[in-house]
Every structure is written in structure tokens, then in C-alpha cells.
Target: Flavocytochrome c
Amino acid sequence: MSDDWDVVVIGGGGAGLAAAVSAAERGASVLLFESETELGGSTQLSAGMFTAAGTSVQAELGISDSAEKFFQHYMDLNQWQLNPGLIGAFCANAGPTLEWLIGLGVEVPARVSGNAHMPGLCQAGVEDVWRGHVPKDQGYGVVQVLAKAARSRGVEVVLNTRVERLITKDGRVAGVVADGIEVPAGAVVVASGGFARDEDLLARYYPAALRAGADLFVVAADGSRGDHIRFGEQVGAGVAGQGWGLLLPTAYFQRLHHWQSGFPPKSRVYVNGQGRRFMDEDASYAVSSGIIDAQGGTVWAVFDERARRTLPPGYAHWNADVVSAEAQAGRTLRANSIEELAGKAGVPADALVATIRRWNEQLPHGHDADFLRHRTLANKGSADNPDPIGEAPFYAARLLPAELVCTHAGLEIDGRAAVRDGRGEVIPGLFAAGEAGAGVLGQRYVGGGNAVANALTMGRTAGQNAAERVL
Ligand SMILES: Cc1cc2nc3c(=O)[nH]c(=O)nc-3n(C[C@H](O)[C@H](O)[C@H](O)COP(=O)(O)OP(=O)(O)OC[C@H]3O[C@@H](n4cnc5c(N)ncnc54)[C@H](O)[C@@H]3O)c2cc1C
Model:
């Protein structure tokens, strides 16, 4: 190991690997520390879906799109509460970063995809132009490609080593300390992921997650301990993205990501405390958690016996036996009529009866005049109409945003991925990206692929600028 590196990267997930590869491509000597025994972090656990505009994949499918349209959608969805310069840079660089990944060996076939498991182009969120690029072999595949590129470009990777702190010298960040050893560097990239697994940091920077109480479960990688916040405190870094993160709506009995937990039945209706339907049950999580939160009380997923009975086997939680067991235990409500179910749920019976009647008049016939769910189902490639809700017994399972995927608060960065201090001035020698580098991920997740695109795009940007010593 050389004892003086051009660039040290902290963290070997998507952002760190992209930073390391792009810095090495520019001729920098690069050392990457990863705290766990293998590379990948949350990126490796993800579908690898990547939101980008103006790509070759879109062009091959005849879709006209641009970074400007992406920018407009991104800013509007986030009510212009993000830094336009940073978002402009992100939107402009996301497409070229996807092309860079394709050049390295990531495969995104030019075909229409219905979901995050099917390689191709899918609807990522609530965008009018589809931007969700799903790679072959998902996040795991992306990490493998980047790890190979890092090896072939001479990046030195040290596993099982958690960086403890930053070193500063003459007003710049000049290296790190790991395993008690000082490692000098021309620039440091913090890419240590988020803080989903640190309850104290959640209380400080994303307290909304703790509202789920005992129902909260975390799917982010084990290394998501919030070390970026501690590094930032050391050098007076600004914090952006405070109070934001991604919580997905789940039934209270889910404890795993839906690939393992399974999916609720298609024939279900979500109702609020007034017994009214209030959303498209398949709405993107770009907006679904916000809609559920806005109901201001308990929300229920209502379905019938046929829906329970026909749940596919093999999933850990959404299967016929688990639903029966939950009902037996009294945690999922079960009743022989809709009126009785309403009584148990504490919602007006006449409203719930009317809701189910109206749902039955529309959804099983392929049309949803109220919430346009037929459009979402079509975009997912879901051909069959939902069955009517009519076979007793009826069930109601509590639904809430409780699956913590990622956190958005981190070190405030600019469009070059340079970290700013509390006054808004750049901290020389310090870059950050991914969940650690904040400002791109906003209050509203723009859809599947937002976080992976952020990690890889800003990671690549950080690596380029760290190598070229722009600070
Ligand atoms: C199950 C799941 C599915 C998801 N699906 C998608 C999706 O399809 N599309 C999407 O856009 N987003 C998705 N996300 C979110 C997305 O994957 C992450 O936000 C993104 O990949 C984070 O990348 P990152 O590089 O910032 O962090 P990570 O990939 O978590 O990498 C950070 C790395 O830093 C290491 N580390 C931490 N502290 C230190 C330290 N002190 N020293 C050295 N190393 C350290 C960690 O061990 C980790 O390996 C998903 C997340 C999960 C958990």
C-alpha cells in the first residue's frame, strides 16, 4: 500500500465504487475502505433501478426526453425545496452516468418493463415520460460490474475496515484514520451510506421514521450507521435533507422487503378512518406514503376471503396462512360482513359499504373513474382485472409507512459533490455522495431509481472532481 493517496474513498457501495472507478480513470491513485466483509452496501440489496433522462435506452424505445424535462419534474415534485443548481447538475449527469455504466458492462435492455424486477425501462414514479432503467441482475449486478472496473483500474480495496475519522491539515481535509492508522490523501470522498440503522440519528434527523413505532423495520444494509454525520461534525459540514427519507407503506405484519415479504392481493381497497377510499392502491411510492400520512389516522387494506385464499405461496408474510394466523390472533380484523368489519375498524359502516360497492362496480370491470388505478395496472403490465370483493369473511389489515429503505439527511453538497460547511463555503479536500452526500434526495422520492441514480451519478462526479483536485 502506498502511504500517500490521491483519493481515499470511504464506503464501497454504489457511490463509493463509482467515485473510486471514475477517480482511477483520471489517473488518480485510489484507496477505498469498506467497513463490512464485502462490497455493495444497500446498493447491492437494491433492484438497481436507475432514474435518468435522455438515455440511449429511451431513444431505442422511441422516447423523447431530456435532462431539462427531468429537472422540471424533479423540482416540481419537491415543491422547489431543493437547490436548483445541484438538481440541475444531477439531472444533467444522470443520463451520461447511465451510459458510462453501460460502457462498463451494466446491461439495460431496450424493452418495456412492468416492474423493478424485469430488466428494461419502466415507470419509476409519477413521471409522464418513463425513466426507470432496470438493469440485468439488479443492484448486485451493478456492484459486480463496478467492483471489476475498480480492480482493473488499480483501485486498492480494503475490506472489513471502518474509517474512524477525517484528518485535517492547513484548512483542508487531508486523509482519514482507519484501524488507528493515519492515511494521508489529496482528497477524501465520503460515501458511507445513510443512518437507517442508528436510532439516535433517526431521532435527530428523520424522526418521522420512528412514528411507525414497533412496526418500523429497516431494510437498508448493516453498514448504514450514519458515520457521514460524525465525519461532518468533525469539520463543521452543513447538513441537508433533514427530516427526509424513504419509508414505504406496508401492512403492519410485513418485516422484510416485498421481494421476500410478498405482495398484498390485487383485489384490495385502501380506506381511511371515514371508511372512504382515498388513493390508487398501486400508486407509486413517490407519492403513496405522503397520501397515507395525509389521512391523519389509521388506514386499512380491506380484502376478502378469495383474495386471501389465492395469495401465492412462498412469500414470508403475504401468504394465506400468515393472514389467517394474524386474524386468529385478532391483529388483522376479520368479519362475516362489511358492516361488522366496519364496526371492528371503527369506521362508519354505511361509508365502508358504499366504498366496497363502488369499488366493485368499477375495478373488476377494468375502470377506476375515481383514482385511475387501471392506468397504473396497465403500466405494470397487469392484464387481469381485480376480482370483486364479495366473499366472506372479510379482512382489514392496518397499513402504514413502516419499511425504512434509505435516509436523505447528510453532508450538504454542491453540483460538484463538494461538501459545504455551515456557512455554505466549500470544505477543501472533501467530497460526499450517495446517502452520505445530501441535497439530491428530497422530501418526495421521485420514484424507483432515485437513490441509485443519486449514488452512482454523484459518486462518479465526486470521483472525477477529487481526482482533478478541483478544490
Ligand atoms: C432493499 C432495498 C431496495 C432498494 N431498491 C432501490 C432501487 O431499486 N432503486 C433505487 O434508486 N434505490 C433503491 N434503494 C435505495 C438505494 O439502494 C440506496 O439509497 C443507495 O444504493 C445507497 O448507495 P450508497 O453508496 O450511498 O450507500 P451504500 O450502498 O449503503 O454503501 C455505503 C457503504 O459504506 C460502508 N460504510 C459505512 N460506514 C463506513 C465507514 N466508516 N468506513 C468504511 N465503510 C463504511 C457500508 O458498509 C456500505 O457498504 C433500495 C434500498 C434497499 C435497502
The domain at 248-403 is CATH 3.90.700.10 (Flavocytochrome C3; Chain A, domain 1). Residues 270 and 301 are 5 Å apart (CA to CA).
